[in-house]
Design brief:
Elements: E1 25-31, E2 39-43, E3 49-50, E4 53-55, H1 62-74, E5 78-91, E6 100-109, E7 122-126, H2 128-133, H3 141-145, H4 147-150
Parallel strand pairs: 1-6
Antiparallel strand pairs: 1-4, 2-3, 2-7, 5-6
């Protein structure tokens, strides 16, 4: 909503008034488990960790967003996405401009031969106990806070 000239039918916002934001940055996150029930995480340049995935762009379906993000970050394709396992969480960091809505779901990768040209720095599969102790990126903290939900409802 702008505070400048407004068209007919638009609500009038007085100068100097700020409309509270209802904006959430929506991200998709891949829950990639190995045969030992360990979850794949990526380490960033700053040493923090996050799950593979990223922003859901306008005009994309959920599946398109997940496939694009995994391709960008790991350099591999996805065989299967299980949308029945979606685990939503909302996070907000102190000083953040807006909250994050994370939609994490179980995926199976076509390959674990990650590309050296992909965006990831370091990858590691970890147990739930290990996942709970790492330093998560602030935007993925809500996922770590709900770790037990991430391990629930995997592919049968």
């Amino acid at each position: 909503m702008s505070t400048g000239a407004q068209g007919e039918g638009e609500p009038q916002v007085p100068a100097g008034y700020t409309v509270p934001s209802t904006f959430y940055r929506v991200s998709v996150k891949a829950l990639v488990f190995d045969r030992e029930d360990r979850l794949l995480a990526l380490q960033n340049q700053d040493g923090s960790w996050e799950l593979p995935g990223g922003g859901w762009e306008h005009g994309e379906t959920l599946e398109q967003a997940m496939r694009r993000e995994v391709r960008e970050e790991l350099g591999v394709e996805i065989d299967r996405i299980d949308t029945a396992t979606i685990r939503p969480c909302v996070g907000h960091a102190a000083g953040g401009r807006y909250p994050w809505l994370k939609l994490a779901m179980v995926v199976e990768l076509a390959s674990h031969d990650f590309s050296s040209e992909a965006e990831m720095n370091v990858t590691r599969h970890m147990t739930m106990a290990q996942f709970r102790t790492i330093t998560m990126h602030r935007s993925d903290q809500c996922l770590q806070d709900n770790a037990e939900l991430l391990w629930r409802g995997r592919f049968g």
